[in-house]
Amino acid sequence: MSVTPSMDIFSLLDVDQQIRHPNVGLYALTLAHKNQVYLEYENRLCNILDMLESLDATEGKESMEDRVLQELIRANRLKGLEWSGQRSKRGVNGAMVNTGVFMPLLGVAVSDNASESYFVTRHPQNPTLHAIYVTTLIMYVLYHLPRRGAAVLLAGMRSILKSQASLCSLASEVPIDPRKLLSMYSIPTHCTHHRVGASPTCGEPLFETVIINAKAHTVPLCKYEVQDLKQWVGRLLSRPSIEEYVFKAFRRPRKEYMEDMWDAGHLCKILLKKGERFLPGPANETRLAFSFSMDSFNPYHMKEAKQTVSSTAIWLILLNLPPHLRYRPENMFLAGVIPGPRKPSLSNINHSLKLLVDVLLEFFDPGVLYSQTARHKQGCRVRAILVPVVSDMLAARQAGGFASPTATYFCMRCNLKVQDIENLDKYSWPP
């Protein structure tokens, strides 16, 4: 059975509210003739939704609203592909990441000269509301305050605002539900994985229904916490000092004595295509090199009587950064966390690794085009490679699909058997 990705906590848009407004958001199209089909269809759907909202509540009305909303979501995805194709020099085959977002729905300040999401003021203009939003998000996301506790915190904030005449008008801008500060997005309900290319679709359900306080709730059977690498790179390259380090990584002179892997020079010999080295790349592009790391850990720490639970985390380390910045938590990409209670098998780990492999293939060729970075105000193409696997022996073999070090054929390079492991004469090893 496949896993279900969870949402990116850095997205602060209410998607359900955004799609109710025609041609707004990340992928708003121009009024050019070639876009009229998309815009007219979306506008018609929004008009139907407005008419439905004016009717009395019935089961038929709710069913129709759901169908119209689903069609609006599909139309927005098609607009996203068209927008990407129009912005990318290589067409829809080259991904385009829009670092701009539609902010007026949240009441935040947006500069006319800077519509890029990582380069605008994302918080409310009022400092009191800003403090309330940040405090609630920190308690809710970082300190794992339960949703009900965060709702009580917001209710207390509203009471404080209402008690002050000068702040009373701000109380209505504090949400009741803390989830309003996070976004929502739709996901498939059944597994679409193929174990091999010609095999049938898995089709196993991804969700189950549980009854809590006499109410039915749909919850995922297995939740995989994952980040979007494209958006993470966009945030990273919005930091001026970081992008300078990234750009200069392959252009500095190598030291006589090796202090970092870049001093060896082997990574700079990797080819993008015949006759063209991947690193350092042209000045109008950004080239990234990552290392891969995977390890399992017990989220409940040590347990008595060997009652162990294992969760597995996957990281990418940006090798462009110098060693003193490379391993800081804010500069490491947490690709995902696979929940326990057991480690994933050699075949099941592929579900999680495939999500990462697919996006890295796209980063390698044709690359991902960003609408703006700190160094390139008019945007640039970013390419990336993943080279070394930095893990212990068990995790490295699992990620690479190799057998356990205790298997009969334990070696990754020859067919030497484990009972001959003490044979050090390499000329006698079977090929």
Structure description:
There is one protein chain. With 431 residues, the protein is of the alpha/beta class. Among the domains are: 1-95, no CATH class; 224-400, no CATH class; 403-431, no CATH class. Helix content is 30%, strand content 16%. It has 10 helices and 12 strands. The protein has helices at residues 15-18, 36-53, 59-87, 127-142, 147-163, 229-236, 240-248, 323-326, 349-364, 393-400, and strands at residues 4-5, 95-97, 207-212, 215-220, 223-226, 271-273, 276-277, 285-297, 311-318, 332-338, 368-370, 380-389. It has an 8-stranded mixed β-sheet with strand order 1-5-10-9-8-12-11-2, sandwiched between helices. A two-stranded antiparallel sheet has the order 3-4. Helix 2 runs antiparallel to helix 3 (59-87) and helix 4 (127-142) packs antiparallel against helix 5. The protein is globular and about 85 Å long. The chain starts with a strand and ends in a 31-residue tail after the last helix.
Short description:
The protein is of the alpha/beta class. It has helices at 15-18, 36-53, 59-87, 127-142, 147-163, 229-236, 240-248, 323-326, 349-364, 393-400, and strands at residues 4-5, 95-97, 207-212, 215-220, 223-226, 271-273, 276-277, 285-297, 311-318, 332-338, 368-370, 380-389. The protein contains ten helices and twelve strands.
